[in-house]
Write a structure and sequence with these properties.
68% helix, flat, 0% strand, mainly alpha
Length: 78
C-alpha cells in the first residue's frame, strides 16, 4: 500500500474526528461560564399547599378514567 492510499483512507476519519471534537467543544463552551457562578438560593417561602397537588392529580385521573371508559363507536360489522 502506498503512502497516498494510506493518507486517503485516514483523511476522512480525521475529518470526522475533528468535526466531532468541534461539536463537543461547541456544546460544552456555555457550561464553562456556568462553573464560575454560584447557585441561586431556592425560594421556599411560597410553597403551595399539598391539597393543590392532590386536586390536580384527582382532576387528571378523572379525565384519564373518563376517556378510557367512553364507549367506542363500533358498528355491528366489527
Amino acid at each position: 500500500m502506498s503512502r497516498q492510499t494510506a493518507v486517503k483512507r485516514i483523511r476522512p476519519a480525521m475529518r470526522r474526528a475533528a468535526t466531532a471534537a468541534a461539536a463537543l467543544g461547541a456544546a460544552l463552551a456555555p457550561t464553562a461560564s456556568a462553573w464560575g457562578q454560584a447557585a441561586p438560593q431556592p425560594n421556599v417561602t411560597n410553597t403551595p399547599a399539598p391539597w393543590v397537588g392532590f386536586a390536580i392529580m384527582f382532576v387528571l385521573m378523572a379525565v384519564v378514567l373518563a376517556i378510557s371508559l367512553m364507549p367506542s363507536k363500533r358498528s355491528h360489522q366489527d
